[in-house]
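Priority: low. Protein: Galactocerebrosidase. Input follows.
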Amino acid sequence: MGRDGLGTAGLGSSGMGPAGLPPSSTAMLWVWLLLGSSWGPGPPGVGAVPRPTATYVLDDGGGLGRQFDGIGAVSGGGATSRLLVNYQEPYRSQILDYLFKPNFGASLHILKVEIGGDGQSTDGTEPSHMHYENDENYFRGYEWWLMKEAKKRNPQIKLIGLPWTFPAWIGKGENWPYDYPHVTAYYIISWILGAKQYHDLDIDYIGIWNERAFNSKYIKVLRQSLDRLGLRNIGIIAADGDWNISKEMVVDPYLNDAVQVVGAHYPGTKTVPNALLTQKKLWSSEDYSTFNDEVGAGCWARILNQNYVNGNMTSTIAWNLVASYYEDLPFGRCGLMTAQEPWSGHYKVEAPIWITAHTTQFTQPGWSYLQVDGHLEGGGSFVALTDGLGNLTIIIETMTHNHSQCIRPPLPHFNVSPQRATFYLRGSFYLVKTLQVWYSRLDFESANSILFKQLHPLDVWRGSFSIDLDVDEVYTLTTLKTGQKCSCPEPPPPQPFPSNYKDDFNIRNPPFSEAPNFADQTGVFEYFINGSDPGDHVFTLRQVVVQRPITWVSDADQTISIIGNFRWVNLTVTCDIYIEKQDDGGVFIAGRVDNGGIYVRRTKGVFFWVYADGTYRVTGDLAGEEVLMKGLSGVRASAWHTLTLNIQGASASGLLNGYPLWENVTISKPSNGWAAIGTRSFEFAQFDNFHVEAS
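Result:
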């Protein structure tokens, strides 16, 4: 039966012919082998093409390889799970099950989250637990919630925290977190202690500063501080960039002792000699970052194996966990699955989820790799792992070059061709009689991929078996019988963002600190109870970051939060605004906003500004450099006003408190984009009764 059927397609055992051939038919078997017939589609011996054959030995008799530390994914870096929290049940729980529930979907072993620092960290900002030095709040954002949901499904999942940005007070005026290492260590350890005190979460590993310079003194201070507080079990991962920290570790024993894991990002499956000399765990602590179609799945399949085969890396962590942010932000759909429509409930379980399952459902952290070369002679790779108790899992991938290119680094050319692999099981595996078989084939022609399909078990004859491998396939062969592929109900169909959307922010005990669907791109916008206003504006949305944070990228000089449908052309945005900063404070509402994320400084659109000095402006950009109209408004700080921006075709107009303030401003570009709110600088300001209507 061919691979699309339910038989043992592609599989044979070295002492048996096709499924159902009696073991006594030895002579027939040898004729069959000599003819070069394969286990591919079609009856044996009919039109079969001889395949090159190679043999591989799996033996634990001489000891084992490195300990496996698990497969994981990143939430954050940043705001990649922003829309997930807004999903209604049962869809939100279904998404979480696909990610974290053991023997269900991706069954992840590791969850790595951003320690929010109020700055832009790729697709948005994540709020800090300490906006200011005397401020602590361990309920901001959604990473606490996500870690608890992961732990609820898998109590054994490992948790990692890593900062991308830091609040301004850490640097005391400098855009640098290392000048006062004890202050930075205090800030990070506060997050760790808050996770335990308020959420009963035990953090397993902590990072330094994502993809930025490391500082040896700070790492040692952090290690000493953790140890003094009895947190010796928390490992430090360094430096979440390249391998360069290993140069210092091999000559600085105190630094080497402080670091438990050498973590590199996008290593291209290669390590460096100094990293090996540290004798530490080596991880690809961020990888993948690729559009989650079949090529993305091919990338993920290849590096999950080859990070160990080529680079001795015992953990691979994908950026990102779930593409739950507006797709037109940078790196849209670069998650293991996609959940970017909480308003409709639609989500999509993408191919990388099932590629992940090939490893995660049949291994656990604490298993060990076998000492094998891992390269297939016809191209591709395999890894073999054991729990030391007799269980064996083999994962094979035959991804071709053009079908497995990750977003970075560039992939040198290589060839993969159909082949036969014969495996000899030795040592404690010699007595294995049967292996369960799970199979995926990525189809780049007709999009009819086969994903994580269970085939008939494979009989092992006298410690050996053979398997025919085509290109762009993944096999898991395992003694474990616990694998499952969920057959859940289909989610609702996709729908665009509602064309008529309102939020009055009137919620006394919000489940999250941020209003649904608003995606902060500079600054942080939080629910606020306005104790000084007993009237219509008790519950508002407030921008709360008043100093430029220690940045990871070039944050804007203005704050901005986007919302809606990037395809919107004609729209009317109305919002009540309250300027808190006297004299030079200011706020805006906007439409056709065309950028965000790491590109937020270059954002264009139609921006309607009012300032505390009684003036207004209309600009074509967030930076305020392209002035389309300006004049007097009479607006002052410490008073509520209603702004309305109307964009129709090539013309825009604005109202203040229901009366026309400006009109007939010609708009040439951009032609479409989100709605947005924001402030002139890092300043307190409030927003209420937001309403957008698009056509």
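The first strand starts at residue 11 and ends at 12. The longest helix spans residues 181-199.
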